[in-house]
Write a structure and sequence with these properties.
Keywords: Coiled coil, Nucleus, Repeat, TPR repeat
InterPro entries: MS5/SDI1, TPR-like_helical_dom_sf, TPR_rpt
Shape: elongated
Family: Belongs to the MS5 protein family.
Helix content: 55-70%
Subcellular location: Nucleus
Distance between the termini: 81 Å
Number of helices: 13
Protein name: Protein SULFUR DEFICIENCY-INDUCED 1-like
Length: about 300
């Protein structure tokens, strides 16, 4: 009987240990097991030693252990440690070891890295490439939506929302180059697809920089009157009010610069009007969003 009780107690302790290990992994959001990748995540999240974690992520990649996650996580940690240039090199060198499903996620990390390094041309080209993928039906691995994560929460993102987000990033990159005419076109298309207050304020800045003050003021009114998404956000509202004050002296005088005849041609942006007017449920791999953009030609050439 004593031996039987010892066996029961042993099983109970083993079960408790397994449960504790499971709870530990859940609390710290660690994958189960003791592989190189798991040790890297433990070092990153529990021991909070990013430099050591980077070394272990390298080992995981070389060992072929969860390469998709290891490369992405390593690049993110390297960026946090101000090793953005090395992170770019790592992704470019090892992304061919990753699955097709991981490529979009790696592109998103690369865009952030290019932004941190001030590599505007590379950032712009990659954003255009992502627009091409939408055109070709390759975004989201051919699906109409994808599951995204933010602060531990999952949510669904549509192709329409993703297109507007990419255009917003592209517009911002053009603004950093002081190419306000190109940024204006991109922001206008983004607003027609999925308008929000932040992009409206950026569009206003593009118009202000081109001395088109009355148009800029009109854009701000939609934010201040709560007509578009995000208008109730305190930061967006404050920014819109500040921009309006900056515009008031010019608007009161009726001063404005003539609207330029923009000539923008870009295979990546063709047909955004089609997306606005005909966006329909996902029907095929080729999405009907790039047909013709007029009267804009030349500045956005790929």
């Amino acid at each position: 009987m004593m031996m039987k009780n010892n066996n029961i107690n042993g099983c109970t302790k083993k079960g408790e240990k397994q449960q504790l290990e499971y709870n530990y992994h859940v609390i710290h959001k660690l994958p189960p097991g003791d592989s190189p990748y798991v040790r890297a995540k433990y070092t990153q999240l529990v021991e909070k030693d990013p430099e050591a974690a980077i070394v272990l992520f390298w080992k995981a990649i070389n060992a072929g252990d969860r390469v998709d996650s290891a490369l992405k996580d390593m690049a993110v940690v390297m960026k946090q440690q101000d090793h953005a240039e090395q992170a770019i090199e790592a992704i470019q060198s090892f992304r061919d070891r990753c699955s097709k499903q991981a490529q979009e996620s790696l592109d998103n990390v690369l865009i952030d890295l290019y932004k941190k390094c001030g590599k505007l041309e590379e950032q712009i080209e990659l954003l255009k490439q992502k627009l091409r993928m939408i055109y070709q039906g390759e975004a989201f691995n051919g699906k109409p939506t994808k599951t995204a994560r933010s602060h531990g929460r999952k949510f669904q993102v549509t192709i329409k929302q993703e297109t507007s987000r990419i255009l917003g990033n592209l517009g911002w990159a053009y603004m950093q180059q002081s190419n306000y005419a190109a940024a204006e076109v991109v922001y206008r298309k983004a607003q027609q697809i999925d308008p929000d207050a932040n992009k409206a304020c950026n569009l206003c800045m593009c118009l202000l920089k081109q001395a088109r003050y009355i148009e800029a003021s009109s854009v701000l009114q939609d934010v201040l009157q709560g007509k578009i998404s995000g208008s109730d956000d305190p930061k967006s509202k404050t920014r819109a009010e500040q921009l309006l004050k900056e515009l008031e002296p010019f608007v009161s005088l009726g001063y404005t610069s003539p609207t330029p005849q923009l000539n923008l041609e870009d295979a990546c942006l063709e047909g955004l009007d089609q997306l606005i007017n005909q966006y329909a449920p996902f029907r095929s791999r080729r999405l009907p969003i790039f047909e013709e953009i007029s009267p804009c030609r030349d500045q956005l050439a790929c």
